[in-house]
Amino acid sequence: MTTLILFALATLILTASPGPGVIYVVTRSLAQGRRAGFASMFGIESGEILWMVGAATGVAALLAASTNALTFLRFAGAAYLIVLGIQRWRSEGALIVPDRAPIGRIFAQGFLTQLLNPKVAVFFVAFLPQFLNASQPIAQQVVVLGILYLAIAVIVDVTYVMSATAVSNRFLRQSALQKRTNQFAAATYIALGVAAAALGEKPEGR
Question: Are 21 and 44 spatial neighbours (Cβ–Cβ below 8 Å)?
Answer without folding.
Answer: yes
